[in-house]
Design brief:
Shape: globular
Radius of gyration: 29 Å
Strand content: 15-25%
Bound molecules: phosphoenolpyruvate, magnesium ion
Largest sheet: 8 strands, antiparallel
Length: about 850
């Protein structure tokens, strides 16, 4: 037997070598990124621990990843929570992509500064779990000098060979469960299963139909082809095995509790295609109902050429990593996009694609091809197509449709590799009333087409639950799928009547038929436009009480949509969009620029700018927020801003600098007492004086904690207006996590306890001459409008698309009736009882899409 060559890792720093368990960060201590050790440093220059290529140099210069010639990836992370220093105190000595030799200085750092500002100077040295290398030996608990031997590793091939000799170790914990998920393990449940393991130190596998899948791999899980009622065996090992077993069993049984709100489930159920009909008619499957008349434009998926041979494993790995990073940024942006109802499916799809982007099976496949000399593009395509083929071979139509998502991701990464921006194909220019035809439309293609000119979509293949169809349905665009290859032979410009009520595409219909269909489409549009036009008027109840209807927005595009839909201003600008997905905070200039554009889009309408609501479920990479057992109850909202006053000061400077007619006001999130308001007001006054701004700005507080609702009278003394955030108020009042899938159905802002708090806050505001608004999700439910008005609320801030309907509904209400209704609602014992009461009282609501 030939001797096994090991990889030696030499100390990159002088100091004391210690087990990872000492790291005050569970990501390292629980080996979520891989195994290794840590050094408590006494030297301040990080040197290469072996020869290799510098695969990644973190933007904040605090960490590097080195790839050895054997393909082992080693992460060197200087200190804990040092990303928040934003590069301060770090100096890079080599560029990303450089080849380095053992002992070569990679970066220097200011040890004192890190000791003062970061959580710890302890420097983890991690052998990436993904690269398949195994640690054979490590020198722990001793003083080390730079260049001393630290660890010995078995390279991936050796590890695999060794693993092949020993059968895969049986996992110690097993459980057999019957899958209760309505549609089996398709994309969302697979993502949820993989997600359930993310923070656990456990290896887990699912076995079904004689096949086994890594439970962290969405693709492998889907490829098991598990359907409702199948029995699967879950196996788990590692320190968190028992928790992993419970989490996986719960995720597989989630449907039983009625919580399997899947992307696929949110689309209309596939309707059987009618048999092929006479000439000029193509039967299809309705994926989104509606009627459209327009001209055909065929969209072809870009077939990207990729070279088979690569330019070396390290170059190709780095190129793939960069391309995936570019696609990740774009997808993450999409998951954070608008909060209008129509974009929720698009956000869900982007989240599912994000999960696929990091799928371990895909990455292993691509890495193996790259190791065999293939280019990054070739390797990625091969890995994705293998995954897609496995899905396409399944019997379940819903799972077969998920292959589209993989192919979409293939295109996005290949485009990013080819350098065409962050992975989106250039969108064609659409003429008025275009009906797009495609074999299968990908979500990323649809993203580029969104707009009023897109009248309808026809797909030759595809399914009613394909993600593009779901997004289109949410946008109100009629879609027919499974029309067959005939549809692809239609020349561009062909007149079409897409009847997604009957499930038929009419090709070049007779003039009279076309005219009638056009009239029907026009009538529907007119109805919608009438509601939008009526919404441009000031909102009053039927008996003349003024109720202001504003919009919740999170971007310039949404500000424009708000105005178009008749918003009388912005009641909540979520400024997080400027702060998330980046390595450094936005500068004052950047913020001023964005706020000014939004203010300009609103003209003279009021603009309510909420200060950064970071922390909790909105973590920010560059803030060294402490790890928290319960982030929803931790440093979030105004607490974060007051903990980082420079961040708040910059934001206040940017807001106070807004020019023009806009009437701006500030809103503070997560307030619990008056002292927080005083602290912000003091800083605000200081900034106002510095900027020489004469006019003070109104300062409002969000009522979204029970404390602030109970204390509303005192807060109303200190603030200029109150705005009730029913999303968080409900979460904290009911003690139910707002993101908990199994509690989603019970997390209802119409719970009488929440209504009592709203009533108290509205009354306190009125007694103190202070304006009371609602900006949480309840304001976007027209059904709840009479109740909120009856409780004393005078301003509703809703998602832009709902405003025409909301205003029309308010116009039909009488305040005395609203008060009587509110009084009855406050006497109910459950949210369900309140909903039933409102449903009985509600006159039919105008439907904007009818
Ligand atoms: C709320 O909590 O109701 C609210 C509007 O704030 P967000 O949803 O941004 O937490
Ligand atoms: Mg909130």
């Amino acid at each position: 037997m030939s001797p096994v060559t090991t990889i030696k890792v030499w100390a990159p720093l002088a100091g004391w070598s210690t087990p990872l368990d000492e790291a005050p960060d569970e990501v390292f201590a629980r080996r979520m990124l891989g195994d290794g050790l840590a050094i408590d440093p006494i030297s301040a220059t990080l040197c290469a621990p072996c020869d290799g290529e510098l695969l990644v140099f973190a933007a904040a210069r605090h960490a590097v990843t080195l790839r050895t010639p054997e393909g082992c990836e080693i992460l060197l992370h200087v200190g804990i929570d040092t990303v928040g220093l934003g590069g301060q105190g770090f100096e890079a000595h080599v560029p990303e992509g450089a080849r380095v030799t053992r002992g070569e200085p990679l970066l220097s750092f200011d040890l004192d500064l890190i000791a003062r500002r970061a959580k710890s100077v302890l420097t983890p040295i991690i052998i990436s779990a993904d690269s398949g290398c195994r640690i054979l030996k490590r020198n722990l608990d001793r003083a080390v000098a730079v260049g001393d031997l630290l660890m010995e590793l078995a390279p991936a091939a050796v590890s695999r060979a060794a693993a092949a000799l020993d059968p895969a170790p049986a996992l110690p914990h097993t459980r057999r469960v019957t899958v209760a998920l309505e549609h089996g393990i398709h994309a969302r449940p697979a993502a949820r299963l993989a997600g359930a393991l993310r923070s656990l130190a456990a290896e887990a596998r699912l076995t079904a139909h004689g096949r086994e899948a890594n439970a962290r791999s969405t693709v492998a899980l889907m490829a098991l082809g598990v359907r409702h009622g199948d029995v699967v065996e879950i196996g788990a090992g590692g320190p968190d095995a028992a928790v992993a077993l419970d989490a996986l069993a719960a995720a597989l049984g989630a449907a039983r509790a009625g919580a399997a709100a899947t992307i696929a489930g949110s689309a209309p159920a596939p309707v059987a295609a009618p048999p092929r009909a006479a000439d000029g008619l193509l039967p299809g499957v309705i994926a989104s109902r509606g009627l459209a008349v327009g001209e055909a434009l065929q969209l072809r998926r870009p077939e990207l050429a990729v070279a088979e041979r690569g330019g070396g494993a390290s170059e190709e790995s780095a190129a793939l990593a960069r391309a995936r990073a570019a696609v990740r940024v774009r997808l993450e942006r999409r998951t954070m996009a608008a909060d209008g109802e129509g974009t929720q499916p698009a956000r869900d799809v982007a989240a599912a694609h994000l999960q696929l982007l990091d799928d371990p099976e895909l990455l292993d496949g691509a890495r193996a091809s790259i190791a065999h000399g293939k280019s990054a593009g070739f390797a990625w395509r091969a890995a994705v197509r293998a995954g897609a083929a496995a899905l396409q071979a399944l019997q379940d139509a819903r799972l077969r449709e998920r292959a589209d998502d993989l192919l979409d991701l293939e295109t996005q990464v290949l485009l990013a590799l080819a350098g065409s921006g962050p992975g989106a194909a250039p969108a064609p220019q659409l003429a008025e009333n275009t009906i797009v035809i495609a074999r299968e439309l990908l979500p990323s293609q649809l993203a580029g087409l969104e707009g009023p000119r897109l009248a309808g979509i026809c797909m030759a293949a595809g399914g009613a639950t394909s993600h593009a169809a779901i997004i289109a349905a949410a946008m109100g665009i009629p879609v027919l799928v499974a029309l067959g290859p005939e549809v692809l032979s239609l020349p561009d410009g062909t007149a079409l009547l897409l009847d997604a009520e009957r499930g038929v595409l009419e090709i070049a219909p007779a003039g009279e038929r076309l005219a009638r269909a056009r009239a029907a489409v026009a009538a529907r549009r007119a109805q919608h436009a009438a509601l939008q036009a009526a919404a441009q008027r000031e909102c009053r109840t039927a008996d003349g009480t003024r109720i202001e209807v504003l919009a919740n927005i999170g971007s310039l595009a949404e500000a424009r949509a708000a105005v178009q839909n008749g918003a009388e201003g912005c009641g909540l600008l979520r400024t997080e969009f400027l702060f998330l997905d980046r390595q450094t905070p936005p500068t004052r200039e950047e913020q001023s620029h964005e706020y000014q554009r939004i203010a300009d889009a609103l003209g003279e309408r009021p603009l309510t700018i909420r200060t950064l609501d970071a922390g909790g479920d909105k973590p920010i990479a560059y803030l060294p927020l402490p790890p928290e057992d319960n982030p929803a109850l931790g440093l979030r909202g105004i607490r974060t801003s007051l903990a980082y006053p420079q961040l708040l000061r910059t934001q206040l400077q940017a807001v106070l600098g807004i020019q023009g007619p806009a009437h701006c006001r500030l809103l503070l999130p997560m307030i619990t007492d008056a002292d927080e308001i005083h602290a912000v007001r003091e800083l605000l006054e200081e900034v106002r004086r510095e900027l020489g701004r004469a006019v003070p700005i109104d300062l409002g507080v969000m009522i979204e904690t029970p404390a602030s609702a109970v204390l509303a009278a005192r807060l109303a003394d200190a603030a200029d207006f109150l705005s009730i955030g029913t999303n968080d108020l409900t979460q904290y009042t009911l003690a139910m996590d707002r993101g908990h899938p199994q509690l989603a159905a019970r997390l209802d802002a119409l719970h009488p306890a929440v209504l009592h708090l709203i009533a108290g806050a509205a009354q306190a505001a009125s007694e103190h001459g202070c304006h009371a608004a609602v900006c949480g999700g309840l304001a976007s439910e027209p059904l709840a409008a009479p109740l909120l008005i009856g409780l004393g609320v005078h301003e509703l801030s809703a998602v832009p698309t709902v405003i025409p309907q909301l205003k029309a509904h308010i116009g039909s209400l009488r305040v005395a009736d609203c008060r009587a209704l509110a009084a009855r609602a406050l006497m109910q014992g459950s949210a369900a009882a309140v909903r039933a009461l409102l449903a009985r009282a509600a006159p039919p609501l105008p439907d904007p899409h009818a």
